[in-house]
Amino acid sequence: MPTTIRAEVITIGDEILFGQIIDTNTQWISTELTNIGIRTVRKTSVGDEASVILAALSEAAARADVVIITGGLGPTKDDITKKTLCEFFGVGMVRNQAALELVTGFFEKRGREMTDLNRMQADLPENAEYIQNDWGTAPGMWFDQEGIVFISLPGVPFEMKSLMTYRMLPKLKERFEMPVIRHKMIRTIGIGESFLAERIEAWEDALPPHIRLAYLPSFGQVKLRLTATGTDSDQLGRELDEQVANVMPLIGNHVYGFDADEIEQVVIRLLKEKDLMLGVAESCTGGQVAATLTKVPGVSAVFAGGVVSYSNEVKIIALGVNPETLGQFGAVSEPTASEMAEGVRIMLGTDVGIATTGIAGPDGGTPDKPVGTIWIAVATDKGTVTKHLKLGQYREQNITLTTTYLLNLLREQLIES
After folding, report:
1. Where are the domains of the chain?
2. What InterPro entries would the database entry show (predicted)?
3. pLDDT digits (tens, 9 = 90+) for 146-166
4. CATH homologous superfamily of 263-416
């Protein structure tokens, strides 16, 4: 079996450390490396300072077979990657004729005048293999030093992705004998990480050495990622499917999907399969349920619309909630949630109505109804199902969790119907 190829990704730029831009490059690079069998072992972000970049390169070279650098390749003085690479390798800078012709052609086609700074983009460390960038002026560079491959890429995502896809990934596959890496994601909801781990402990302990399990928790959900390594992709796929089949009897009631599935996609798929239309009534979530659903392409086939009934007046006027219900039980109550779900179903003429009402916080709570008290409801022609949530003190977290739990309650009712 081929040995594991380890990679490290270094992003260069003060703008990343200042929080002025979001680094999406490392996530994309890691995904693409995994797809060809290279394991990313570390990601590092550093500023535009030569000493810091040199330290990051030295540390990466001590533990990785492939070091990928993005950023710092522009025409301005703060772009110091090439100079720093020269210092790291102990070489000089030379002007690459092919790179110069490409930069010159780039400006000629656009009728723009080249400056000396632009011409300097064709200057490369003398030990670099020039990798043509057909998507911009910053060069790609490949270094093969003492068994370690260093790759330098522009930081602009479009240019970086194009160079990686069409130039660097094929070269990496030629350079290294890659193991095959396959992933399988099991998506669970409504069970905490520790409870989940306890339930599947025996199954996890019995996994073969070449299949590893990782727990990836988020709001209201835990993803179980199985990673298999070997030489035969089809065989690994069969083994992963077998392990999923083995664990499903233990956690099946909490599994809502696999791999790239999101809870809203699963719900919309079920609504389409059953040819049902959905209406949403929201109070404490303020429209997030509807926003989450409408992120999914094709949702208009099953989603009629929603009402954000934040005040009691809107609950009464738009959704038909009985004033006596509000007076006796309050806006945050099981009866109110039920009437909201039933009311939006009637108002919009849909097959299903769902609703949220609660105290998202950070204030507004009482001893009887503290912050985090939430009621959710799902109404269909078979009746109305409610659920009481006892969440925490943080508003944004409460809104996100309420949205997740409501969509899961809807999923459960659609499966049972």
Report:
1. 5-175, 180-258, 263-416
2. CinA, CinA-like_C, CinA_C, CinA_KH, Competence-induced_CinA, MoaB/Mog-like_dom_sf, MoaB/Mog_dom
3. 999 999 999 999 999 999 999
4. CinA-like (3.90.950.20)
